[in-house]
Amino acid sequence: MRTLLCEVHQRRLSCTGTHIRSFTLCVHCLAPGCEPRQIWHLVRHGTRYPSDDDTAAFLLTLPGLQIDILLAHQEGQGELCDGDLTLLTGWSIGALNMTWSSQLAPEGYRELEAIATRYKESLPLLLDQPFTNSSFKFRHTATQRTEASARSYALGLFGDDSAYIPEALDPDPLLRFYDVCSDYQTQVEDNPDATLETRLFEEGEEMTSVVFNVSRRLGVPLVLDEVLVLYDACRFYKAWDPPSAAAWCVVFTPDDLKVLEYWQDLDYYYTNGYGHAINYEMACPPVQDLLQHFSAVVEGQEEPSGVFHFSHSEALQPVMTRLGLFLDSKPLTHDHEDPDRLWRTSRHGSFATNVAFTLSSCGADQWWVSAAVSEQVVSLGGCASSLGCTWDEFIATYGQFLQCDLDAICHNTLTADLAISTSVN
Question: Given CA atoms 155, 158, 159, 162 in this order, what sign does their dihedral have?
């Protein structure tokens, strides 16, 4: 039994707990004879360290549980193979501490620099040029991880620290619109009923089976909260060092991970996705910003070659939802896990997830808009081609978002002094 489990684990360790991306850049989505004129890029920060709560859970739970698992196996309990036990034995909490909470990890710096480098290689006419304030525009939220991501991205584009990265706005209704939306706070963030489907799934047979199976495999009785700490440990340690086997991932089988992935998808679906209308209705400021920049180029105004925004999953997922991406024919629910679902946050919600739009000139007042999510071309609604849209198609589908009154959408009463500004100026 242990030998079989060991073989299964060793085959899957190279990709367990993280989404392995394949990169197909947007070169081929430019129509023949078109020249790129502007890129608009919304980027989630790169791989980070856990939040305060998650870091505390790691420090309090993992070292003691490591000892308990190893002792259980010495006493003949548990089902981990020798290779898995070797990985767990060699694991150490290392230097992880509370001061690192939510900071960009070394892998995050590398990710953002590499993304920018690949885009520059893909769009050299647009991006392979020195930095000037008029040519490139950067904006990030008031966090270390997004500022560091912006600077790493700039390093990948320009090869040095010449880019001007302005100080963040706080609050920022463009990149953290969810923080200044009263209806979102009351209907979703502070409303336990908003995630009822997630809780029902947690209480269901599939999650109960995961807890039972993991406990049996480790030889240590666990509760759901402890299993979720292990799931986070698997994902974070894998994200920090993608090529290496992550010790805490040996805890789970591929079937366990599918169940936990769906649990995560359900949670994001109802907090950031299609589960509640306010989630995507409030996400119009970034879409408005995109439309304003592209419209200015089409109208012949002076515009930067690149507009780069660095934010968080709470912004990226609602924006993708507002754009109609990854929409399933039926809502996600606790009692129906569709293995072929489009809403799969391991693919469009991971660290460094990014949404890029490119506007290209095709001569004689003809324009082409293409889009990619994490460097994979995506089809846009209302467009005849799967590779992009004519300008008329793009405006017909998304032009409505040129009008975006966040106060009205969110029924805000106290944001008049927040200086909400999503214009191209």
Answer: negative
Q: Which among 91, 61, 85, 56 is positioned nearest to 219, based on CA atoms?
A: 85
CA distance linking residue 275 with residue 158, whole number of Å: 40
The rounded mean pLDDT for the chain is: 91
Closest C-alpha among 34, 105, 39 to residue 354: 39
Give yes or no for a contact between 375 and 115, defined as CB atoms under 8 angstroms apart: yes
Dihedral angle of Cα 257, 261, 264, 270, to the nearest 10 degrees:
-150
What is the tens place of the pLDDT at every residue in 169-220?
999 999 999 999 999 999 999 999 999 999 999 999 999 999 999 999 999 9
**CA pair distance 351, 349, nearest whole angstrom:** 7
Q: How many residues does the chain have?
A: 425
Across 79-104, average pLDDT: 97
Residue 258 to residues 101, 105, 205, 337, Cα–Cα distance (Å): 27, 26, 14, 10
What is each CA distance from 170 to 99, 154, 173, 275, 388, in whole angstroms? 22, 22, 9, 28, 35
Asked whether the beta carbons of 394 and 384 are under 8 A apart, the reply is no
**How many whole angstroms separate alpha carbon 42 and alpha carbon 140?**
10
- Please, how many CA atoms are within 13 Å of residue 130, restricted to the half-sphere of its CB? 2
Tokens 């910003």 sit on residue: 289
Distance CA 49, CA 69 (A): 25
Neighbouring C-beta atoms of residue 329, cutoff 10 Å? 7
- What does the buried/exposed string (b/e) look like for 254-264 if buried means 16 or more CB atoms within 10 Å of the residue's CB? eebbebbbbbb
* Strand-pair partners of 35: 361
Strand partners, 367: 361
**Can you name the residues that pair with 138 across neighbouring β-strands?**
308
Bridge partners of residue 370, in order along the sequence: 358
Phi-psi domain of 76 (left: phi exceeds 0; alpha: psi -120 through 50; beta: other): left
Angle at 341 (CA atoms; ends 314, 389), nearest 5 degrees: 70
